[in-house]
Specification:
two-stranded antiparallel sheet; 21% strand; alpha/beta; 7-stranded mixed β-sheet; 253 residues; globular; 10 helices; Rossmann fold
């Protein structure tokens, strides 16, 4: 199995600053319909800098922030410093340093495509209590939007590791993730989550991806220049509305 722990090394700060949050209606769904409101503890696996963890903590939930990249976890600790119900776990999804039957639910936000799915499933079964549920979630761009089409062309030109947004963006139907869930039963939900970005945020969001150039790379300046041109083309009054959705897959394992 490829070790993906270092994919975001050197990107923690830009990731924390520019990655979008998730739909508030999606958090309502988790809390009111999935049962997070009654959960005693949740493990947020592949938590990165704590973007999604924070939304759970804001609902007064006990959350384990599980992240293998030490640099990202350090930023998460700073970002979530004011929350007393958060504990930090420096471990990968395939070997989570939590006791057996220690959590009620598990989330993986913008991260599952980096995991070894079968080993992660084994860990989910080990640390979950009772019939606890797993929720996989991504923020997805609208692939049909012209700004996204042109963005992808730039990425194909400058980013040799690019193979599609969000690790290839397995989209609906839910059958794409049915293999991971018990008996192939998975609930797929989609929530509109458009991002209104200024130029700094638009470029920064692009640079936060694992496949995007780092400052030391030869094509970094050219990539940034192309992204600025793209922003200028589609922005209005200094802002660009990026069509985006929060999409989740939920079930038992």
């Amino acid at each position: 199995m490829e070790d993906n722990t270092g994919k975001f090394s050197g990107k923690a700060e830009v990731y924390a600053k520019y990655r979008p949050s998730y739909s508030s209606k999606f958090i309502d769904y988790l809390y009111d319909e999935v049962g997070f409101g009654k959960a005693k503890a949740i493990a947020d696996v592949g938590a990165g800098t704590g973007k999604f963890t924070k939304l759970l903590l804001e609902r007064n939930l006990k959350v384990y922030c599980v992240e293998p990249n030490s640099e990202m976890l350090l930023v998460a600790k700073e970002f979530l410093a004011g929350y007393t119900k958060c504990e930090y776990v420096n471990s990968p999804a395939e070997s989570i340093l939590l006791p057996d039957q220690s959590v009620d639910s598990i989330t993986a936000a913008q991260a599952f495509h980096w995991f070894d799915a079968e080993r992660f499933k084994e860990e989910c079964r080990r640390i979950l209590r009772g019939d606890g549920k797993v929720v996989l979630v991504w923020n997805y761009r609208d692939s049909k939007a012209q700004v996204t089409v042109e963005h992808e062309k730039i990425l194909n030109r400058y980013c040799e590791d690019f193979n599609g947004f969000s690790g290839g963006e397995k989209r609906t139907p839910a059958d794409n993730y049915a293999y991971f869930f018990k008996d192939g039963i998975v609930e797929c939900r989609t929530f509109q989550n458009d991002c209104l970005l200024d130029e700094d945020a638009f470029v920064g969001k692009a640079l936060s991806s694992s496949y995007s150039p780092r400052e030391s790379d030869a094509h970094y300046a050219d990539f940034v220049a192309e992204m600025k041109k793209l922003f200028e083309k589609y922005s209005k009054d200094g802002y660009l509305n990026l069509p985006n959705v929060t999409q989740s897959y939920m079930g038992r394992v």
